[in-house]
Design a protein that fits this description.
Blueprint (H helix, E strand, L loop, with lengths): L2 H17 L5 H22 L2 E2 L2 E2 L2
Helix pairs in contact: 1-2
Length: about 55
């Protein structure tokens, strides 16, 4: 997946979290965490993140 697609998914999940029934909040939060991990890994592999700080 491209980073832009992951960012769109993250935005959709955050929007869904705002309107979610309490039964689904935990599930949506876990999807948000996994999406953020995927973005971080993509940034790390591309060299966008060095020494724990994001560049650009």
């Amino acid at each position: 997946m491209e980073r832009d697609a992951l960012l769109r998914i993250l935005g959709d999940l955050l929007f869904a979290l705002d309107d979610a029934d309490t039964r689904y909040v935990g599930y949506i939060n876990s999807l948000i965490v996994e999406t953020k991990k995927a973005i971080y890994l993509m940034d790390t592999e591309s060299g966008a993140i060095e020494s724990g700080t994001q560049t650009g």
